[in-house]
Each structure stands twice: as structure tokens, then as C-alpha cells.
User: Fold this.
Amino acid sequence: MSTPLRVLVAKVGLDGHDRGVKVVARALRDGGMDVIYTGLHRTPDEVVAAVLQEDVDVLGISLLSGAHMTLVPRILELLRAARAEDIPVVVGGVIPDEDVDALRGLGVADVVLQDTPPDEVVRRVRAAAGAR
Amino acid sequence: MFDDEAIERVNEARAAWEAQELGDFLKRQPESRDRYATRSGLPLQRLYTPDDVADTPFERIGFPGQYPFTRGPYPTMYRGRNWTMRQIAGFGTGEDTNGRFRYLIEQGQTGLSCDFDMPTLMGFDSDDPRSLGEVGREGVAIDTVEDMERLFDAIDLENISVSMTINPTAWIVLAMYVAVAESRGYDLDKLSGTVQADILKEYVAQKEWIYPIRPSMRLCRDMMVFCAERMARYNPINISGYHISEAGATSVQEVAFTIANGIAYVEEVTGAGVPVDRFAPRVAFYFVSQADFFEEVAKFRAARRLWATIMKERFGATRPESMRLRFHCQTAAATLTKAQPMINVVRTAYQALAAVLGGCQSLHTNGLDEAYAIPSEEAMKLSLRTQQILADETGVTKVVDPLGGSYYVETLTNQFEAAVREILAKVDEMGGTIKAIEAGYFQQLIADSAYEEARRRARGEQVVIGVNKYVEPAAPGAVEINKVDPDVERRQVERVREVRRRRDQPRVDALLARLVEEARDPARNLMPATIELVKARATMGEITARLREVWGNYVERPMF
Assistant:
């Protein structure tokens, strides 16, 4: 393989559920990717700044607070404003089915729900990166 | 528990059984695995006999309501009084949650439990930019004491106990609770309930925080001291393993970290000169009831014995009430699946049974829709009925500690206790709980356990029905989803702004200045000043912001 994929995984909003994001980060790293984890409670502005600074191939966003329909669109908007909308965004967490479709409609590359096995997360992040 | 002669007879009989019945049977039909272990990894034997408990003196098991409380905190347990059925609720505004409270009371619930929204938990007002999209979503939105009045409207707080699940801002919510009680003329000594206020497990697991560890511990101390002096029946802390488990810890780690946190709180308050027997009787606990049935029963029994021993031997407590561990229990949300949601009811029922056989004092059974959203009214009713069936139909409440004396359960209780003690010894070696948290010790162990579990599930070694076994195609619309009113945020924002406009601003400013002054003196108790502030309609966000100027923010080093 060529250079490893660089992935930023981010926790946005105020919720502190970081079990999933840490499992995903470790699975991606074990899957051969370069993984940067923002830590908790990041704002959309902080996340997009990190995306640009770290020059990543994929952005993964985790949130379980129910605020995804507010915060994810904001991140997509900021990415567009920074002309970085070609960076695929993958969302994970507790997301109701109807919002999964809505997020895809807004331009999210994939939505990975709870109970997705680690290897499948790796596969789907790679697929999202390949589709750019 | 048995004399040598009896054990000798048992072991002879066992040897004969192994040679004949067992040996022959295994030749025909081998067992399904080479090794058996609990979910935490404690090794299990095929079978337990008196030999396994021969070295356990009966005094270690003892009697309920008596040291070391292995068999329960009270002598009669559910024969005298059933556990409190305490379903948690919280969403939208104070009125919305008040409606759910009243519904649950009508359905036979016997205690209240309140969840707050993320901005309230983290100390942001509803109109703060950080609150956008989160107001009233995961719990009720509370900005000022007026929201608290609406939350408990027409609920008699002298006659129902209220548990409030809140941590970094717990002292402000407690101040609001006191303010509401005083405005209604209640006797503070008659109020029963609990405020979680367990900040240490936030740094370890749930990750809600504002200030660095040490000033946050001071706030916990202030609440404990205030309650010891003013609220005789109120639990000012609920030391919680639940979130530690949900974050990925094993049950052994859950209890070990929780008790390590408990030790730190007791040290904090005794360090301020309060005798241990003054406040320890009001210290309460909160554990999960996980999926491994017998390990959970053993866990609750071992936790009681551990705490009793530590309070007596380490802290020199003399009152039995100081050594008696009482706990709230919640079934394990992380075991619930989005796939085939109806089967979550079954999982929850077994977990609830383990909690009851383990001797919980109050119980929340999760909704079947937990993996989708906050629970609907119907889901909560079904969960409550699950508890009511346990209490009124199964007959398990008739005898105290019905599994006590089982060779297996007693042995597992001993094993569990020993495994917890090993971790506690390591924490002591590291210089105590706060040092261990600062070093990321607990956090790393939790992340490791979570990752290992995810791998075991992916390999099918840990069976999750509907996810890695007996999988069915997804059925959209399988459960009714509780909808959050999209207008809640706007209404709550208007409300807090309106309160700021009409209050006595110079008085609020003066009280905030006084709070900052008192915060600079670590010996001062901040509860009285905070109560004055909330009465003057200061908002939660204003109070937390002013103290940030004094104490700064907690910053976690991100790791995975």
C-alpha cells in the first residue's frame, strides 16, 4: 500500500460518550491508518481547523447527544467555506434512521451506527476515502 | 464453614464422582469450551462444593443488616420495604419532565429520578452558543431556580425521594433544590433523595467536567458537609460505577474504580476535619447490573463487604451506618441493541433480577428503545412493569439474600473481592485515586477493556443476540421514537433572557463577587453563597463562568 490514510476522529458537542470513538480510533490505527483524535467537547470550528491543519484524508465525527442535525450541517458548511468539502465525512453514534438519510442527503459520505464491528468500520472509512 | 472431616468426605465423594459419572459422561459428550470465565475474566470451575467455601468463616457472610453486610444493608430487606422503583426521566423544559414524572407516579413508580440536558450538566446556559442543538434533548433544561420550580410543580418533595443525576454543576442544582424547598416551607431534614455529585468518575468515564480535579473535589466536600449539617436524610453523593461500566470497564474494574473514588471522597471530607461517622452514613452508591447474572450478584455482595471493611479498618468508622453500602442500580444500557429492539425487554428483566438478588435499594430498568433515543412513555411503562412483576409475582422478595450460602455464589463473591483488592492495592501504590486519574490509569484500562470487548463481539466469542447470532434484516419503524419538541430550545432561550431582564441585577453582581471571594478561600463552604445566588435568579452559566475565572478549566489529554 502507498502512504497510510490520515483520519481525524472528532467528538463534537457537549456529550462525553467516548467509548465508541476510542474503539473506532484504535480499530482504524490497527487497520493501518494514521489516526488523530481531537478529544472531547470540540466545537465545529475547532474540528474544521484541525482538519485543515492536519491535512487529513477523512473526517470522522462521533456524537451521541442527539445534536447531530445541528452540529454536522455546521461542520459541512465550514468545510465548504474553507474549500475542503472534498474531504469525506463519516458520522458515528446514536443516530435515528430518518436522520441517517438526512445526513447522507447533506453530503455525509457514510453513517456508521452502534454495533458495527471494528473491521467493518475500517472497511467503510477506507471506502469513503476511496470515493473522494 | 465446614469441619475438616466433612470436607474430607465431600472430597472423597467428589473424586469418586469424577472417576465414574463425570469421566464416563465426558467421553461421550465433551464440554463446549476448554475454559469458562465470567465476563470480567474470573475463572470458573465446573462445579462448586463445600470444599470451595471451607476457608470462608461464616462471619464473612454473616447476617443482613450487620457487618460486613455481605447479605444486605438491612435485616429484613424487601420483606420490610420493597426496593424503590425509580425510572429516570428528563427532556425538554421543566414542564415537560414534570408531566413525565406525574405519569410515572400514576403508574406506580415510588421514587423520582431526573436527567438533565448536556448544557445543564456542563454548566452552560441555554442561550450559550455551546448549547446550540442540545437544549432539552438528553434531559431537562435548567437555567434558573424558576425552571426547578416548574420541574417539581405539584410534587410533594417531603414525601417522595428525588435523585438528580448531575455532576460538575451538582452543587448549583442542589442549591436550587434547597431554594425551591425553602420557598415552599418544607423542612430540609425531611427531604430524602440523592444528588450524584461524583466528579471523580467523570474524569474516569462519563467525561462531564468544568474545573480541574482539586477545586471540583472541594465542591463535593462542600455538599457533603452542608448536607451533614442541614439535610439529615439526603444523600449528597452517589458514587457511581454505572458510567465506568458503560464506558467499557469490566465489572471488577467498575467496583474497584468506584471504591477507589469512594476512598478519595472520604479522605477529602475527613481531611477537612469532619469525623467520618458524621457524613459516611449518607454516602450512597450506584452500580450497573450487567449481563453476566451470577457475576453481578456476587459483585453486589462483594462491594458491600469491601466497603464495610474499608470504612471500618481504613477509616476507623464506628457506626454500622457508616459501613453499610446502599446502592441504586440500573440495568446495562450498553447491552441493549438497535437490532430486534423487543428482545431488550428480556435482557433488562434478567439484569433486573440480578440486581434484586444482589440486594439493590432502588432500581431503574432501561427502556427497550434505549439504543434509539431517550425512552418513550410506553417503553418506560413496560420497564416499570418489569420491576413490578419481579416485586409482586415472582416471589423472589420473600427471603433475604436467597443465593447466600450457594457454594458457587460465595466462592465467586470471594474471588470478586480479591480481584478488586488487587486493583485497589495498585491505586495505593500509585499514590491514590487522584494521582491514578491524573496518570490516566483508569482511563487506559477502560479503553483497553472496551476495545477487547468490541473484538470479542466481532469474533462472535461474546454473543449478542440479533447482532452476531440470530441476525435478522433490520425492520424500520420497529419502535416508537420519543420526539423532542423542536421549539423547546427557542422557548428556553427566551425564558432565561426574560429572567435576566427582570431580576435585581446589582444584587446578582454583588453575590457573584462574594462567591468569587469565598472560592479563593478553600476553607469556605460555597453552598450558602450559591443558595443566595440562585434565589436571586442568577443563572447556572453565570455561576460556573465566574468560578472558571478562579479555577480554570479541566483539560483532558486525548488518548485511545
